[in-house]
Design brief:
Layout: H1 6-19, H2 22-31, H3 39-58, H4 62-86
Helix pairs in contact: 1-4, 2-4, 3-4
Amino acid sequence: MFFFNIEFFGYFAAFLTTAAFLPQLIKTIKTKKADDVSLITLIMFLCGLLSWIIYGYQISSIPIVTANLITFLLNLLILISKLSFSKK
């Protein structure tokens, strides 16, 4: 029988959910376009990520805090790109 440390799943989920936003960020920066990215969705998602960061901090969960902090930063860069590129 396999016994995984439950933290493995936390770190694995953290890696996958964080890495999932890299292609969008790279595409947005390369094309200098973010028209297809919903502003409201980004703002709602950032608020959700901030809530996860607070929650993870309160329960002392390194995988939750780390994943959501990195994902927050990646999505903040997408938001900044969207706002910056839409002004041009």
